[in-house]
Amino acid sequence: MTFSITRAAVIERLKQEDINEESAVALADRWLVQGDFLLAPLEGKFDFVVGNPPYVRQELIPAPLLAEYRGRYQTMYDRADIYIPFIERSLSVLANGGNLGFICADRWMKNRYGGPLRNLVADQFHMKIYVDMVDTQAFHSDVVAYPAITIIGREAPGATRIAHRPAIDRSTLAILANALRARNLPKEAGLVRELAQVTNGPEPWLLESSDQMALIRRLENQFPTLEEVGCKVGIGVATGADKAYIGDFEALDVEPDRKLPLVTTKDIVSGEVQWHGQGVINPFSDEGGLVELQNYPRLRRYLEARREVIAGRHCAQKSPANWYRTIDRITPALASRPKLLIPDIKGEAHIVFEGGELYPHHNLYYVTSDEWDLRALQAVLLSAVTRLFIATYSTKMRGGFLRFQAQYLRRIRIPQWVDVSTSLRTELAEAGMKRDFQACNRAVFVLFGLSDEERSSLGGNGE
After folding, report:
1. Tens digit of each residue's pLDDT (9 = 90 or more) over 266-321
2. H/E element holding 455?
């Protein structure tokens, strides 16, 4: 339908230029190609490639077609969306000096699955322009993951011109376009600035202000990661059928050792745990395998009553003998461990201490540690330093929300606990326990030895 409308419009436009209909049709059929862009043959190289590639999750692509894409495109890595090979193919057909201009989600610039594509760009191309479109009305309809406008050239690497969230009006966009295209960036460019060395092999790209980028690099060079200092980052249980596996804890009619009290995002809205009484069925033995249902008649009766829903899940169909397992293995010992709970999508850090009674749901990430005091760690994770790490590496969602996912939490740098003085340990723990953001910042700025300039780059001195 779209192709037919476009073809008709091109023919009509050519006819308006006094081109006869036969020639107009021939030109349109020469210029326009309908097919799968990832598979269709293309002749020659191109000076310009412009587009808004489709977003299609791998789960929605037929297996034979997905296998063909994977065989052709080296950037189809992990759970990459279909727009990733669209970018790869577009880059591959650029002539020397040619430019690719796409408006699409910027997740690949920071997410795990974007690593091979980032490496390709860093190795062979110039990331020329990045325009962050978070919270701007780039499209007629709302989208959750806001896009970026990206210009990549087949030329020697250089500085990247960056603009954030321009107003969508004619005068602003005209000024922006002129600044982005200027041979030399005006000293008072206003909307636009330049950053050197944005690309760094497969590493996530840092596209924030230069002073914040310098702080991130300094901390990364000086301190180990969160997990290197003995803090484990994980995510709660995914069942694949929450309505079957989760319910009122007391009402779940199974043997007592086959259920665990469950903490969800609803239980931590206030910043403290206020359990609403939910529980989750545990089909796993302490050794790790599934329990034998004949040894648990109440559990067996409970699961059999919901067998149609449970056995209908993809994971159950792949392994029918294990039809009653949850997607993630449940390890009961986790419930009894003190932990910090972190919901995924938030505007600010929401770090909640849980004393070791509840099992986390899959919408919650958690941090445990045998080294760091969790209340002191809570202060670090509530601080502006942690927000900088998350904001730098996370993709941004509508409304300025950030993704507090494990892959980004693991990027956080922190000193070894043994290197923290007794007085600072106390100050951190008290700030974390009170969830006093100002006090958290004061203590954390000392912890990292931030200079006045570095504190200023985070928006204040912690007072």
Report:
1. 999 999 999 999 999 999 998 889 999 999 999 999 999 999 999 999 889 989 99
2. helix 452-457
From CA 322, how far away is CA 244, in angstroms rounded? 16
Q: Pull the structure tokens for residue 222.
A: 């000086």
- 238's tokens: 């995914």
Name 453's Cβ contacts closer than 8 Å, sequence gap at least 6: 211
pTM: 0.72
Q: Rounded to whole angstroms, how far apart are CA atoms 244 and 119?
A: 43
Per-residue pLDDT of 157-178, as tens digits, reads 999 999 888 888 888 889 889 8
- Three-state DSSP state, 153: strand
